[in-house]
Each structure stands twice: as C-alpha cells, then as structure tokens.
Hints:
Layout: H1 11-22, H2 25-37, H3 41-69, H4 73-79, H5 84-126, H6 130-137, H7 141-160, H8 163-190, H9 195-203, H10 213-226, H11 233-239, H12 247-278, H13 293-306, H14 309-346, H15 350-370, H16 372-402, H17 405-415, H18 423-449
Helix pairs in contact: 1-8, 1-12, 1-14, 2-10, 2-12, 3-4, 3-10, 3-11, 3-12, 3-16, 3-18, 4-5, 5-6, 5-7, 5-14, 5-15, 5-16, 7-8, 7-14, 7-15, 8-12, 8-14, 9-12, 10-16, 10-18, 11-14, 12-13, 13-14, 14-15, 15-16, 16-18
4-fluoro-L-phenylalanine binds near residues 104, 333 and 334.
Amino acid sequence: MASSRGEFSSRFGFIMAAAGSAVGLGNIWGFPTQAASNGGAAFLLVYLILAFCLAYPALMAELIIGRHAHANAVNALRTISPGALSRRIGTGVGVVGFIVASLILSFYAIVAGWMIAFCISSLLQLVGWGGGAEWLVSFGMERNVIFMLLFMALTVGIISEGVHQGIERWSSRLMPVLLVTLVLLVVYVLTLDGATDGLKAYLLPDFSQVLSPKLIISALGSAFFSLSLGVGTMLIYGSYVSDKENLPSLGGMVTLVDISIAVLAGFLVLPAMYVALHNGVEIFNEAGNLISEDTLIFTVLPALFDTMGIAGIVVSVLFFFLMSIAALTSSISMLEVPVAYTIEEHGLSRKKAVFIIGGLIALCSVVILANFSTLFGLVIAVTTRYSQPLLGFMFCVYAGWVWHRDNLLAELRKGNPDVEQGLFWKIWPWYVRVVCPLIILGIFVQSLFG
Ligand code: PFF
C-alpha cells in the first residue's frame, strides 16, 4: 500500500524533506529576533530544553502514527482509535489540522512572496534598473498578489510531482543550497565592524527573563512552529517513511538539523543588526527594544545592505534567496497535508487535488491581503499560537492514551527490533502520555490568563 501512495527513497531524502519543512521563516527570521528580545542565550537555553523535551516527543508522536497508518492524519487517527468516540474526535482533529495547515500556508505564501520580490529587487539594482527595484520593495496590493501567486505556483508545481519526484527531489536539492548560503552569509557578516556586539547580545544570557511566562510561551510557540507540529505535516511525512527505518533516530536528526539551523541563523541576524547600528541604522524601537519581525527583515536589514555598497546588494540577493528557499521547502509540506487528505479520502488525482487546493489557498491569501490590517496578524495568532500547540496536545493524547501500547511498540520494532531495551522506549511513552500534554496545556492556559 505504501509504495502506491509514494515513499521517500532514502534516509537522506526523508531527513532533507522533514528538515526542509521544519527549517523555514520561523528559524531564520523568528528565532533570532525572539532570542534577541527575550534575554539572548537565556532564550536559547529555554528553547533548546523545550525543543528536546517537548517538541521532539511530539514530533515522534506524529511520525509514528503516520508511519503506522501510511495514511493522512484523518485516516491515521481513525486507524489507531479503538472506539467510535475516539474515531470521531480523531477525524475532527485531522480535519482541523488540515484547515490550520492551509491557513498557515495562506499567510506564509504572502510573506514568502515578499522575500522573492526583495531578492529580485536586489538583482535589478545590480543591473541598474532602479525603478523596477523600487516598485518591488514597496508595499502594494499588486506586488503582494503577484508574488504570492508566484510563490504558490512554485509550491503547487513541486507538490504536483508527488512524494519522490517532487518533495524529496526538491528538498534534497534546496536544503544543501540553503546551508551553504547561510554559512557564507554568517562568515561574511562576522567579519564586519560591529558584529561582535551582536554576538554579545546573542550569547550573553539575561537570566532575569528565563522564568518569565512570556519567554516560555514564546519559546514553546517557536519550537512547535519550527518543527511544523500539530497540523499533520510531520504525520504525513512519517506516512511516507519505509517500515525499515528507525524512527526515533530519524526524528532526532530532524530536530537536530532544525535547531542547528535556527542557532546558526542567530549568528547571522543579530551580528547583522549590530553592524547596521554601527553603520548608523536605527535598530531599537521607541521602547528601547530591538526592532524585530517584519520591520527587521524588510526595513532594518535592507537599510544595512544600502550602507554596504555593491557588497550589500550581493548580500541582499543571497539573504532573500535564502529566505525564499527556506520558505519553499516548508510550504510544500503544508500543501501536502490537505492534498494527501483529498487524494486519499475523496479519490481525486494528485494533479487535480493540488490545483484545486492550491487555488483555494491562494484565494484565502488574497482575502487576507485585501483586509491586511485586520486579518494578517489574526490568522498568524490563531493558527500558530493557539491551534498548533492544542493540536499537538491532541496528537500526544492519541499516541499516549488512545493507541494501544502493544501496537505502538510493534510499530517501533519494525525499524528497530531492540527498541524495547533502549532509552527511547523507557522514557518516551510516559513522556508523551503525561509530561507533554500537561506542560503544553499548562503553558497554554498560562498564555490565556497569564
Ligand atoms: N516550520 C516552519 C518554519 O519554521 O518556518 C513553519 C511550518 C511549516 C509550520 C509547516 C507548520 C507547518 F505545517
């Protein structure tokens, strides 16, 4: 059954695809700026603990359920449910998951479109076409729609090719390019004046903030968003993994790659900000905090590149190219969630499903763009701050409580006959049963009332 619905052909292919999903705008943009405004290395420490102790076990829950069922989330949660009620709730969780994945893609495509526009703008600057370059970096409906559509077209094109020819082939090509580009940029930026101040801001911990609820909630949200959890993305990628593979080690590698790239991106973004400061660009807002999020990426960094002459233009092309690639390997995993569901539950051909769903998501993006000030922030908050952790909670509950323990063990034994003797089987089952749901819920409640 597995091969007729597509399968990753190698460990490397899976790791590139899953790490490609995980490594995205969240790593290169979100993580470094959050670290900067939440206590530097103190945030890093909390993030690492949450990533390994909470996000990795939750990732494993999705991968194992997916591989067992070799099916989309709706079908998979139904498969492992013993009773009618759990089957019904499982269906609901799967359906909400694919709606949330589609909504995440609808705002992600807008932001990724800006990245492509900024990259092309710098290329135009290189060839001396200032007018075109200016239009590409100016916020406007036409530009936003055109580049969102371009990005969606790339995503649709890759997903229409299927698991092996599309997702695996493109992730395996793009991820190494991403890594090389990131390393080149880090090395270059670290040679510039002012970079060491950025390193200090990043690496000197401010422990006064470590236990603040705000910091822990930010770090949890980041870890879940960063590992693409809660929406069935990792579940569907897990469903394309061969039964021969050792899942805990595959999941560990994906977590490691994801965290390493986020940490590495910190060595680019924070030093770059302080180089900007050194060059006379304002990097603090009125409240005295570091400028973050969209203003950082689309105002501070371009202002920095402007102060660096021709080298700045080249760095700008590379930086926005890096962002575009990171976004693309993530967006394909988001689109695969509703596409796999539609193919498997409604019998559509892959091409038809991809075009219909891609079109509908692009339509959502247009609606968000037309009501930008009200919808953009709202969709991001609802999907990433609330839905992802809550859905992640449900996946843990299904793996830990609903699914029969013997079947879970049988699934893990497939790629790892001695799993019962290992550390993973000693810790993970009760972890995913008790620790993960309790902590996710605790932090969530705290974020609502705290
Ligand atoms: N992990 C991606 C990032 O860090 O940018 C975002 C993401 C991808 C979220 C896929 C959700 C998802 F299903």
